[in-house]
Amino acid sequence: MLPKFLVQTYFRWSRGMTLGGRGIVVDKQGRVLLIRHGYIKGWHFPGGGVEKGECIETSAIREILEETGVVVRGRPKLHGIFSQHKNFPNDHVAVYIIRDWEQPAVPAPNMEIKEQGFFPLDDLPEGITDGTQRRLEEAFGKLDIGLEW
After folding, report:
1. Which of 7, 80, 114, 127 has its CA 20 to 30 A from that of 38?
2. In terms of Cα–Cα distance, which of 61, 64, 93 is closest to 79?
3. Mean pLDDT of the region 29-56
4. How far is CA 140 from the centre of its chain?
């Protein structure tokens, strides 16, 4: 696992402001797809950073495919855009809800993504991040949508 400060330092050096897109991928049983990275602790939604010249929605769809093998069909629904200043100054994350998708193949674990799985809302994995937990509570009507990750 790469130290968090090294990852953050690289992105801070290469980008003045960071912007990312993540997806709440929901299956027909109402379970959500979460991933565990090789470079940061906890369970998160799949997604990643927006590249130069790329739209945030396109970025989220691309990153979700690369990380999980999920092919998004149609347009995802924007859940919200959140400030992540407490964890990573000048970072913002757009979160989309994705219900129309397919997963023809699941990529093997690698250096970036160590593990992935679908989890019922009442049995989420130990170590889910606070921001991920809040977004799930918002998306499924248990909390009002906040502004910060």
Report:
1. 80
2. 93
3. 95
4. 16
